[in-house]
Amino acid sequence: MLNWETQIRSFKTYLQLEKSLSNNTVEAYLRDINGLRVFISEENNNRPDTLELHNLLKYIEEINLLGISARSQARIISGIKAFYKYLILEDLIIADPTDLLETPRIPEKLPIVLSIEEIDELIMAIDLSTNEGHRNKAILETLYSCGLRVSELVGLRLSDCRFKENYIIVTGKGEKQRIVPIGEKAIKDINYYIEYYRNHMKINPDYENILFLNRRGKQLTRVMIFTIIKVLAKKIELKKNISPHTFRHSFATHLLDGGADLRAIQEMLGHESIVTTEIYTHLDKEYLRDTIINFHPRS
Which among 62, 166, 204, 265 is placed 20 to 30 Å from 104, CA to CA? Predict the structure, then answer.
């Protein structure tokens, strides 16, 4: 007889050890499964192996009534499907009740992209009279030069930097590493930050190998990077709602605009599937459409 608690614990171990997923991803999966478990227990069904399609449809109807977005519903369904695929894999159940469970259609949302001029304006708005200013300049140049996720940026280590060869080693999702080229401008700003700021700090022993540090000599948080960018956007009165990820989108879009190969961009971004990278081809189509609307005499 299966019970939810035991199988959820086993599923967690499977995700961590066999799938090598990050802690954030594992926790997201477990939240989705526990949400289903709580709902089903209220329906007097305390065993995952007795669940049927109609139970799942009732649960999806419930989260839909709560106003949860289609994107979040899709993620929840994906987590539930993964859990039942695991039970099948372990020969704990024979039939998968999620087989006919459909994922809601998600409207395609194109990411916000900054122009080169807007990126320059943001960087020029940094106050370089402070030590943190030179650090922040190096951070923005690195985000844009390498297309990093914010988690990859804050985790970047001194030992990951191969500036003589013009690349860095990036640890991405699932602890997978990739090599990413880095531009001379970013290298120059990082070296300046290291020589005139970082080398003169009292660094916490646990963070001696972390590149970007806060004033207490510890690793910067993701929230701090968001705050730095939001403050600069407000300073230049930028109308776009931007985040650290906007620099990643801009990096990819500008490479594509310049004629870079989509596979190369996929490799640099660390996307497992080329489908994820293909969103930037849609951005290019948007640009073409806007160009026609604005400049064609018949538009």
Answer: 265
SS3 assignment, position 253: helix
Which residues are marked as active site? Answer: 149, 173, 245, 248, 271, 280
Domains of the chain: 4-89 (1.10.150.130), 116-294 (1.10.443.10)
Which run of H or of E encompasses 284? helix 279-295
DSSP bridge pairs for 210: 157
Amino acid letter, 250: S
Neighbours of 28 (CB within 10 A): 15
What values do phi and psi take at 179, rounded to 5? -100, 130
Read off the pLDDT of residues 202-245 as tens digits, 9 standing for 90 and up. Answer: 999 999 999 999 999 999 999 999 999 999 999 999 999 999 99
Query: Which among 28, 24, 14 has a CA at the least distance from the CA of 6?
Result: 14
| Closest by Cα among 258, 252, 16, 9 to 112 | 252
> At a CB cut-off of 8 Å and minimum separation 6, what does 83 contact?
7, 8, 11, 29, 32, 33, 48
Question: How far is the C-alpha of 274 from the C-alpha of 60, rounded, in Å?
Answer: 30
pTM: 0.64
